[in-house]
Every structure is written in structure tokens, then in C-alpha cells.
Design brief:
mainly alpha, 2 helices, two-stranded antiparallel sheet
Length: 59
């Protein structure tokens, strides 16, 4: 299963592929998400914006 996850992540790294897939799934194919608007993010740096106190809580 890990191999499939790696292949999918590599495939979806292309901005045009990502935009096409999510425009199809979320917007019925309408061009709402544009590849030029996308930029990569570090998936290991995800945090909840409203953690306890003033600090975000990493997930």
C-alpha cells in the first residue's frame, strides 16, 4: 500500500494534474482551481490554527 501512496503523491505533485483532478471532483470540471495559483506545502508542517492557548497544535 505504501508504494501506491508514493506513486499517487508523485503524480499529484504536478500542479496541472492536481488542479484538473480537484476541479473535476469538486466543481464538476469548471476551472476554479488554476495550476498557476498553486504552490507546494510541507505536509509535515500541518497545524491546527486554534490550539489550546495562543499556540497552534501540530497534528
Amino acid at each position: 500500500m505504501a508504494d501506491k501512496d508514493t506513486i499517487t503523491k508523485e503524480y499529484m505533485q504536478d500542479s496541472a494534474t492536481f488542479a484538473d483532478a480537484f476541479n473535476f471532483l469538486l466543481y464538476g470540471g469548471r476551472q476554479v482551481i488554476r495550476p498557476e495559483q498553486l504552490h507546494p506545502l510541507d505536509t509535515t508542517a500541518i497545524a491546527l490554527p486554534y490550539g489550546s492557548g495562543k499556540q497552534p497544535e501540530p497534528i
